Amino acid sequence: MGQRTPNLVVTDGDKAMRTAIAEVKEAEFWKVFKKAIYANFDVDEFERYWRTSIESLSLGQNTWVQLTYDIKESWATAYLRGRFYAGYRTTSRCEGINSFIKVFLKSTDSILELVHSLDRVVKDYRNNDVTAQFYSTYYTSIPLTGLDAIELSALKLYTRAVFREVKKQIKGVATLLFQGRESISTTIVYSFSKMGRPDRVCKVLYDPNDQKIECECKMWDSDGIPCSHIFCVMKYEGMEEIPETLIFRHWCKIAKDCTTLKMGNDSREHARLLQYSALYSSLTHVVTLGCEEVEDFAFAQDAISDLNIKFNMYATFFIY
Question: Could you tell me if 167 and 154 are in contact, meaning their C-beta atoms sit under 8 angstroms apart?
Fold first, then answer.
């Protein structure tokens, strides 16, 4: 899309994995493998964990285990850190969509019935989207993290679902231990460790001039939300709002607001598609409400007719 190549591809190797794990015949291996995939290890911790686990299970000579380890850069969190994948680590969401669509479809459907069924699927998804947008707009949260200003700033900024994840990171500030602060040129370097893990120090770079904050854990690069280390720096620097450099538009309430979209020459077609989608979604909602009652239908039809007249007058004005 937009002549860009994807930087990450999620593929389904589930059947192959199940067959291979069945051949391994070790009940504990699945637990080891799952932890190796998802645990928040750094590279050294992952290597130690994998080596120790495989040796304890006597699987060092297993062919599939060795082949899987050889491509660890494609599945282990320790090696994927810093690559943006928007929360997608499995194909379960795509499989969920397929499963949802199957509820509406039958093998005996005609082409007309198929089109109507798919239209019902789209309407259901749009209804879910409207519901989520409503809760994001009117949802309120009682600040409980102790960083009230930052939490309220995040609440105003993010959608409800994303705010839940951001709030977890704000709460995580309480578990961090300050290890040091030093200045290198115009950059301030903060060092933090976590309670119970004093040996694992994470460094955060902060540039006061550009309001840029970068963390060694690379959570923002991977998930698009600031980590607890970044929020801890914000606390020490007395910041009450999340800097613009750390705001990922797709997670915000204004993600679909095309009026605030900055358009360059290379993104005009992309912006046009976004605007088309937004208008189409709004008009679909109008049509859905307008067809319920005769009075609603007449009101919607008059409003759409007035809008058409205004657009024609607008176009004629610019032609002449």
Answer: yes
Decide: residue 317, CB within 10 A, 0-12 exposed, 13-18 middle, 19+ buried.
exposed
Q: Report the amino acid identity of residue 283.
A: L
Q: Report pLDDT digits (tens) over 47-96.
A: 999 999 888 888 888 888 888 888 888 888 888 887 777 766 666 677 77
CA distance 311 to 277: 19
The residues spanned by each domain of the chain are: 15-79, 91-138, 148-251, 266-317
> Cα separations (Å) of 161 from 75, 108, 136, 149, 167?
25, 38, 8, 19, 10
Tokens linked to 104: 């509406």
Confidence of residue 213 (pLDDT cuts 50, 70, 90): very high
How far, in Å, CA of 101 to CA of 99, rounded?
A: 6
Q: How far apart are the first and last CA of the chain?
A: 37
